[in-house]
Design a protein that fits this description.
With about 130 residues, the chain is an alpha+beta fold. It is about 15% helix and about 25% strand. A hairpin with a 6-residue loop joins strand 3 and strand 4.
Length: about 130
């Protein structure tokens, strides 16, 4: 079966710099952090329909912006049927966001808006489980 493009519109609800504040109660994407920058974003995890029922297939997403103090870029990452048994947006899409956004900010010479040592190591960070 051929994969189809999926478009999701997210209306509001950005969490501003939640990971930088080290608040695990509201952070669903500690892997979205970028050293030297505060980021804001929203995770997403959606079941896909398989015929008329929801199967074990997902679309995972992370949409974010940076730097929080003076937003310059928005990056949206959507993964159709991520593999390896992982499907939460904060787990699979947020790291892609961090790589793409971090590279773009540095390439464009956007000045950092946070100390480089404010990043919580992903292995130490507590991620809130998303509802599916």
């Amino acid at each position: 079966m051929a994969k189809r493009a999926v478009c999701v519109v997210i209306l509001g609800g950005f969490i501003l710099g939640a990971c930088i504040k080290r608040d695990p109660d509201v952070c669903t994407a500690p892997k979205a952090q970028i050293s030297g920058y505060r980021v804001g974003g929203k995770t997403g995890t959606a079941h896909k329909l398989d015929g008329r029922v929801y199967g074990d297939k997902y679309v995972s997403s992370f949409v974010g912006f940076a730097p929080v103090s003076n937003p310059r870029l928005i990056v949206a990452v959507m993964l159709d049927e991520p593999g390896a048994g992982q499907y939460y947006g904060g787990t699979v899409a947020a790291p892609v966001f961090a790589d793409v956004m971090g590279g773009a900010l540095r390439l464009l010479g956007v000045p950092p808006d946070a100390p480089a040592n404010t990043v919580v190591a992903p292995s130490d960070a507590v991620a809130v489980r998303e509802e599916t």
